[in-house]
Amino acid sequence: MPEISYREAVRDALAQALREDESVFIMGEDIAEMGGSMGVTQGLLEEFGPKRVRNTPISEMAIVGSGIGAAIQGMRPVVEIMYEDFLTLSMEQLVNQAAKHRTMSGGQVKVPLTIRTQGGAGWSPGAQHAQQLEAWFVHVPGLKVVFPSTPEDARGLLWSSIYDDNPVVFFEHRTLYPIKGEVPTELEPIPLGKARIHREGEDVTVIATGRLVHEALEAAEAAESEGISVEVVDPRTLLPLDEESIVGSVRKTTRCVTAHEAVVRGGFGAELAAVVQHGAFDWLDAPIERVGAHFAPLPFAPAMEQWVVPHAEDVLEAIRRTVARVR
Amino acid sequence: MATVEEKAQPGKRRVSEDVLRGFFREMLLIRRFEEKVEERFRAGELPGFLHVAIGQEAVATGVCSALAGEDVFASTHRAHGHAIAKGTRIDRIMAELYGKIEGCSGGYGGSMHLYDLEVGNLGANAVVAGGLPAIVGAALAFQMRGEKRVAVAFFGDGATNTGTFHESLNLAQLWKVPAIFVLENNGWAESTPASQQLPLPVDQLGKRAAAFGMKLIEADGQDVEAVYLAALAARDHALAGKGPVLLHLRTYRLTGHYIGDPQVYRNRDALNEERETKDPLRLLGARLELSDEEFAAVDAEVTAEVEASVEFAKAGTDPKPEDALKYVYA
Lengths: 327, 330
Prior knowledge:
heterodimer; A: 327 residues; Rossmann fold; 37% helix; globular; B: 330 residues; alpha/beta; six-stranded parallel sheet; 11 helices
């Protein structure tokens, strides 16, 4: 199996869809000659030309909104919002329009639109270039929300998002772009709504998303040396959520930690905790622990930034707390 | 300059009297439909809240008559006239207002979310300017596929103050997509008059096109022939690949913002004068020199259609409550 980076995986899914399907096109700020602010779309302009790889003005409302209109007319646009912080500028179109057209029309309208975006801390971008806002979108009926953590998942899930007939918000994590991983030789679509169990374990389940999947795997290794067996589950799709896999895992291990980079309060971990307590109440041997960022806008100075967002040791401490209850 | 002011000339008899009589009939149908909607709402039969466009019928009929079947449009919260004029059966619109599954949005939308994909209605929108970006995208799809179709957005003067309006017109002009932005300028943003919400004199709002280098076409929105000719010119321009058009139509809302609006903000004498002098049906009736008998005959026809639409709607089927989940995802 070839090894590619997360960045290359996203690019490969885009390129293959553009190659195979005239209805697919991409647009966003700086995605053409520059290849995107994160270099994801490098080379696509050269292969597919300016009609299908479109630089846009700095107009997030118009980027998402025109994607909606093109999608309703039978195209499969993939629009890029440069930073997920800037999704806030397009919220009206995403929340009031894209998510609701199908229901408001009584099923007449489909919006096969993919909105790619990225974010994440760890490089001192400050408070307006690194938020993790995925939980906001999980609250909106009509949207789907995807957050891959590996190259294989990024490629397979982006493909499925492009070919889904609903608006999909596709979150990429800034610090994962350079990580490498094996992918199948041929692109294999990964269905939306299926979790991945990254590591099997017996004592604690860590349900992690995005960068925290990797932190959780590191924490699991450390816990192993302490005699704690940790299972790591990545939902990959936050909406719809693979509740069966998540609940099944916690019923087996009887303890649960949720972990994401977004702030704890109102974060996706709260939804996971609710699903787990309802589905595995009689199995739980400890309160569910939630790992996430401290409740603050992200500060600039590296020392503060690193303190605000969670790392492997935060996950490890949460794991220890869950097992300490009964040991 | 890419921006040229054009005034459609109503004096040029490019529109036959037969066509104008057809316009009159449709405008009267819209008027009677909305009067019936008001009546049934006040009788407590219609849920939610409603906006009528009494006084603005010439815009709906004039613009939609200039469009082809495959052209698409997005509308506003004041949408009944646009929907009727583009060809949705009025009984399906009335059924929608009654929340029935026979409604044009299956009872999921209501007055502010009338859809009918078959006739190109991409949806009425309850967020001011909310439908504009999607019209840019629809026009982009037509352009990319080489289809000879236009996408049309209706919106009011209030919408021209939103960021969405500016982003949409900017992008449309940048990419020269075949879109027509129909500025239905009635001089009111809900209860707020032009003087409190527009930095330009109300009649000069078309100047906003110049900021984008966009083609501007203007016409008297109370003169259906002028609107029709202006919309034809706009469509020709857009289809010729010359880019989008701002079609500025000055019109008059001869009622409140919503049904039941006491209009405490409005000068009664001015409103009464507008009703006397600006009613597009009166203006067209006088121009056609319709006799009382001719008017009564048309009125009887359209009134019967409207009555039939109410019967159709009342006999419609209530949705099952749990069908609320049916169309959340495709």
